[in-house]
Amino acid sequence: MRHQRFLFVSENRSQCGRIGGPPASELGVPMRAALHVAVAQPLCVPYDVTQNAVAHAAAVRAAAARVVVFPELSLTGYELGAPALTASDPRLCPLAEACAETGSVALAGAPVPGEGGRPHIAVLAVDGAGISVAYRKLWLGDAEAGRFAPGDKPAVLEVDGWRLGLAICKDVSVPQHQVDTAALGVDAYVAGTVMSADERDLQDERASRMAAQHGMWVAIASFAGATGEGYSDCAGRSGIWLPDGTLAVQAGTEPGAVVSALLG
Fold first, then answer.
1. How far is it, in rounded angstroms, from Cα 70 to Cα 68?
2. What predicted TM-score, i.e. pTM, was given to this entire model?
3. Are 212 and 243 in contact (CB under 8 A)?
4. Alpha-carbon span 20 to 201, nearest angstrom
C-alpha cells in the first residue's frame, strides 16, 4: 500500500499529507516548503541526444515535480565512446523548454568536456535559466577510467532551500563519497546510476542503508531496459528513500517510468 500511496503523490500533490517526521513548526524551527522530487528512467536511444532530450522533456512534463533526476549518461545512453556535450548544445533545447514550462530542475546525465582532452561523466542541471554542469563523477569504473577524468570534489545543488548532494553510479558504492557529501550539510543524496538486473536488491539495500546511516533522503534514478557496455538488462526500480531508510516510492523495471514523492 505504501507504493500506491506515493504514486498518488506524483499525480495529485494537494491531496497528500506531509512525508517524514513532525512538522517544523512543532520543533521550533522556521517552516520550509516540501520539495517535490521525481526519479525517471526514460527509454534511451544509443548516442541519439536529440531523441533522448525529447524523451527527457516528456518525463519532466509527466512528473510535474520541482526536481527530476535521471540516470547516469541518460542523454547518450551508457556509451563510453559518445562525444562530449556542452551546456550550449542546441539538441538540449526541448529539455530546457520543458523545465521552463514546468518550473522544474532536471538533473540529466551526460559526458562533458574536460581539461587535457579527457571528458568527465557529469550531471547537467537544466532549468528555466539555462544549463550548467552541476557535478563531475568522482569515482570511475575501470572501463570509464580509460577515457574519462574524475571530478575533483563532491557537489551540492541548492533548490528552494534544500541542499542536494549529487552522485553518479559508482560514487554510491563508496562510503567515503557518502561521508564527504553528507559533511556538506545535505538534506538529500541524489544519484543517477546504471546497474544490471541482478543488482536490483543491492541497489535497494545501499540506498536504504545510506539514508538511515546519514539521516538524509536518498533518490536514485536507475537506468531501465538495455544500454551499452554489455548492459542488456538494466535494474530500473528507481526510487526514493526516507531518512530512516524506509522506501517511499519505487518504479518498476520498465523504461519510461516516472515516480515521485514530497520531501518534507
1. 7
2. 0.89
3. yes
4. 24
